[in-house]
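Task card 7
Instruction: Convert sequence to structure tokens.
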Amino acid sequence: LKAIAKKVHYYGGYLIVDGTQSIGALPFDVKEIDADVVICAGYKWLLGPYAIALGYFNERFDGGTPIEENWINRKDSDQFENLINYQSDYQPKAGRYNVGENSNFIYVAMLNRSMAQILEWGVDNIQEYCANLLEPFVNRFGELGCTIEESKFRSSHLFGIRIPGDVDVKRLKDELANRNIFVSIRGDSVRVSTHLFNEPRHLEMLHEALSDVLSAETA
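Output:
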């Protein structure tokens, strides 16, 4: 991303990142990457609820026009005694991009607490734990004829196990579900997400299930 940002900025473009699949489980430094905008849904690796997200906008967007028009993203909307003096100008800087009713007492409190927990654990520690969890199984999945990208090309909290081409991945998913192993299928790959609540025995169960299904498919 850092290299992409450099090239994009050279041509006057913007680097806009959807960090939903990584932020909270994979180290991410917006300043180092030099992204212009970063958006992250709260419900995935930030461990928050649906219907709330976080956004970062650098100074290039300080005077932009938001997509959503609402009263709370207008100038001085936090001064309730003056709300009848309606302002057409927006809140300064990134405040103008806020969704209406962003002071949600439930969702904001939930996301604040979940992010505090993530910071307590440490994002580096989360990624390291997931890497240590996966590493012993990479070669074992390979022995089944499956493929996992090299570590330098993927994360450890979210990765794909590419299944041999002659295997019915729909049937594979159903069989895994019958064993209470829930994954997503993306093309010819099984998408696996791990976190601190996973243990080696969970990947052992996945390996055993894949071994059984693949053996039956090729028998």
